[in-house]
């Protein structure tokens, strides 16, 4: 029995010295591994966002029978209209969670709603909604998207956001498009 205790003690002493000296290296290695995982996660997150935008366009264009370019411009028109009806902070939340929102918005037809807005009164929410509705109508007509497609495209966009865990942003988008 004394042999077993002495043998165990000797093993523990022998093993504890290298383990202690390697623990610093182990911590350093763990730190490097965490940094690598963090870097790779950021890369994967960026790729996931790109794939998600592609999936959104693909799903919407296939469902609605539109080209991806037309669908992209239609989504951009919806985002442009929502932007004019929301505060900067609220729209920032939407654009922050929706991949390629700037790309969508720049693909949309450019419409000058300032004349209509100034005629109806800039500060009035009803004037903004009327101008936005006129913009959506003109943009979809210019893109060759039937009016009947406005709500299904809107619902796909907000549904996409909700399914990806961005319910609050989807709610804000619905608020910005409540005139539809």
Topology:
Blueprint: H1 2-64, H2 68-85, H3 88-97, H4 101-107, H5 114-120, H6 125-143, H7 150-163, H8 167-176
Helix pairs in contact: 1-2, 2-4, 2-6, 2-7, 2-8, 3-8, 5-6, 7-8
Q: Can you give a write-up of this model?
A:
- With 180 residues, the chain is mainly alpha-helical.
- Helices cover 82% and strands 0% of the residues.
- It is built from eight helices and no strands.
- It starts with a helix and ends with a helix.
**pLDDT averaged over residues:** 77
H/E element sequence: HHHHHHHH
Outline type: globular
The largest sheet is:
none
Number of helices: 8
Overall radius of gyration: 28 Å
The CA-CA distance between the termini, in Å, is 86 Å
As a percent range, the share of helical residues equals over 70%
Task: Provide a short characterization of the protein structure.
The protein has 180 residues and is mainly alpha-helical. 82% of the residues lie in helices and 0% in strands.
Offer a few descriptive terms.
globular, single chain, 180 residues, 0% strand, mainly alpha
């Amino acid at each position: 029995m004394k042999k077993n205790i002495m043998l165990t003690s000797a093993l523990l002493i022998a093993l504890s010295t290298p383990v202690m000296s390697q623990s610093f290296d182990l911590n350093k290695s763990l730190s490097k591994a965490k940094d690598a995982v963090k870097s790779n996660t950021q890369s994967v997150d960026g790729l996931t966002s790109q794939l998600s935008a592609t999936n959104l366009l693909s799903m919407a264009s296939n469902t609605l029978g539109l080209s991806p370019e037309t669908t992209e411009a239609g989504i951009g028109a919806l985002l442009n209209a929502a932007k004019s009806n929301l505060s900067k902070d609220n729209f920032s939340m939407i654009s922050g969670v929706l991949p390629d929102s700037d790309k969508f918005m720049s693909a949309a037809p450019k419409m000058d709603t300032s004349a209509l807005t100034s005629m109806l009164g800039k500060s009035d929410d009803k004037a903004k909604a009327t101008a936005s509705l006129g913009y959506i109508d003109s943009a979809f007509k210019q893109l060759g998207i039937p009016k009947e497609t406005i709500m299904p495209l809107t619902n796909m966009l907000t549904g996409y956001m909700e399914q990806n865990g961005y319910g609050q942003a989807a709610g804000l988008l619905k608020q910005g498009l409540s005139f539809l």
